[in-house]
Amino acid sequence: MSYLCWATADEPLKLREDELKHLDDAVNFGRKHGVHVNLNLHRAPGYCVNPPKEPLDLWTDEKALDACTFHWAHLARRFKGLPNDAVSFDLLNEPANIKEETYVRVVTRLVAAIRAEDPQRLIIADGLRWGRDPVHGLASLGVAQSTRGYDPMQVSHYHASWVSGADKYPVPTWPLKDGSKPADKDALRRDRIAPWQALERKGVGIHVGEWGAHNLTPHDVALAWMRDQLALWREAGWGWALWNLRGSFGVLDSGRADVKYEDFRDRKLDREMLKIIQAG
Questions:
Q1: What is the average per-residue pLDDT within 248-262?
Q2: What whole-number distance in Å separates Cα of residue 42 and Cα of residue 3?
Q3: Positions of E strands within the chain
Q4: Contact, 280 vs 230, CB < 8 A?
Q5: Distance CA 180, CA 183 (A)
Q6: Which of 115, 93, 108, 103 is nearest to 140 (CA)?
Q7: Is the pTM value of this prediction over 0.90?
Q8: Distance between CA 247 and CA 214 in Å, rounded?
Q9: What are the Cα distances from residue 169, in Å, to 141, 158, 166, 223?
Q10: What is the pLDDT of residues 26-41, one digit of tens each?
């Protein structure tokens, strides 16, 4: 979500109820169809991982933090009483380029605001460095943490236009043999699973909040990599969410040149990828 859907950067405390009702619709659709809804501020007052930059800085400006706290308190009131298996909160998408103590300070404020309204709400905090690194400083807060499943980037983001240097990645294989750092299933277990398991041993729940492979990654490579990722998360006992359902990383309308698509409800379905996901 972007807070700019129901407020403005100039008046972040003035909420538009006509727009907020769309959130109610999303949550109600989820409950109707048995789909868990995780509400996440991708653009919050003072921070977004994507451009354009916010006019205030959530990490240094108290006015921005006050506004962000206000929004989460409102959402907590709005959905108070709904069970956690229907709705959860993910505070901020992919915090980057900040120190852990700064992040802990901000998250602590946001969690306190939510719990003042709804003490039982399931809250998730993304890891640092775009969600990649566990945050041990949050372990005592009683919130879960969300990691990412994009490693190695040479596989998941091959020639992705928004990633600096991705246009120079060599054509990937899996296991990855020709890249900045060779990788295989065992390397992922060591480098991406084990550090988060250390956090899990402190009682913190772990969720893989995003993963997937861009449509320029060769299809057979993407599928082999996906099998290993899913096997590792099944081994760890972690849940996950694919980015995305429909689009260049997804099972629908991904626009790959090397896939024989199946027509499905006026969409192009990647049946091979779907089978791997269903098995995982």
A1: 98
A2: 8
A3: 37-40, 43-44, 47-48, 87-90, 123-126, 144-149, 206-211, 239-240, 262-264, 267-269
A4: yes
A5: 9
A6: 108
A7: yes
A8: 9
A9: 40, 6, 5, 19
A10: 999 999 999 999 999 9
